[in-house]
Design a protein that fits this description.
single chain; about 475 residues; mainly beta; Neuraminidase; 6-stranded mixed beta sheet; 4-stranded antiparallel beta sheet; globular
Length: about 475
Amino acid sequence: MNRRSLRPYALAVTAALLAATPLALATTATKPVTFKRVVLADQKAYGEPSLALSDDGKHIAICVPGGAGQTSVWYSNNDGKSFGTSHTTSDNGGGDCELDYLPNGTLLNADLEVTDSAIRYSKDFGKTWHGTQTAGVEQDRQWFAHSRDGKTAYLVYHDFVAEGEFYAQSNDGGMTWPANLAAQPVTGVDQAALPGTGPGAPGQPASLIDQGVNTFSGPMLLSPDGKDMYVIYSISDAKRNVLDGTPPFGKSAGIVVAHKGPEDVAFTNKYAVPNDTTSVSGAIFSWGAVDKAGTVYVLYNSDKGAPGHFHTYYAYSKDKAKTWSKPVKVDDAPMNRGAQIYATGDAGAPGVLDIAWYGHRGSGGSDDPTAVWDIHFAQVRQATSSRPQITRAKVAVGDPLHRGSICLNGLLCITGGDRSLADFFELQIGKDGMAQIAYADNYGEFADGKKGHVIWAKQTAGRSAYQP
């Protein structure tokens, strides 16, 4: 389920376009990156795969919404040499699925029930599941996070009534989720005093009035020392909620990063990425990462400067989300062709980012019925310098993942548009520093006669993200 969407480089670019889209330009490194891939067994669903990797570097878990009160899980105990399957069940689940490996090897699974999330855990790396706790209150799109020692687990989400960001907290490694910790606020009361003046500038506080009924919920991140918490989400603005998209649900117009340090009693919510009145940032989710130096990154897609043609960007903060860099364009597609969507990624050594996205280079945008989509990967080094080095690759050379349009309107796609891949996929960096990706593929019929599958891919060549 995805109600937040109900409200619905080329270096050679022209001087005019640069003026319209002020970006930090990137250099390109040439060391090749390759991947191996495994088509996972049919689980009757393949959209929105969630990926979790264990700290020991051996165990992998992937899940998708299973429908009818289930989530569908693939698990590997041998670094992807083979995968088994399992399911979780809950009384009202079957919406969004989310996984997280804790340092002690416990695997958590959250199945969205709308009224809350049903939490189950596995002590054998995904083979069997136990317990049915609930976490949070009425909610949409949930994401896990945990403390360095794994004793504290978090589930961040946004609620339906206030459309605010909240999180639930477990103090025993996800075994129990107390009701008094079910709806701790991320958005602040102080935001209500701000007028709804639009997307704002980086570092400026975000208005709850602009947020309105339209929150595009993103993940929670913790700093390497575990002292700082960040929550990433995007919102529209008061004007667009009335005039744009499907009123009162305007399209995402700015990306907010909430921060809470050890000295703080509440989060501050400030814009990381501003926008103008005509472009979209998010499409649909904004992602985030924190590198080993504590630099915070937002990873996202925007059609700023080329309406309808989305591209992949990142921005960073080195002062705990107080100030933000200009956005850096990661893909090398021409500004006015194709679309690059669903950015996801992770950070490694200081200044190193791994990013993946779905993209095509046809004449149209994401709604192009003739588009042929590939899964793209980029490793960014010296990401916080004036000349970041970017190595790009296709994850599956010669094997596209989708043909036709991809609808970016969430559940509103029922009125027209292809939402078969759903709204996101995931990348994580493993213990060996190599990227792993779980993504959806329905380009053509598979050998087993099925239309779509989840693909697991692991980087086999290229530099480790943990190498400075």
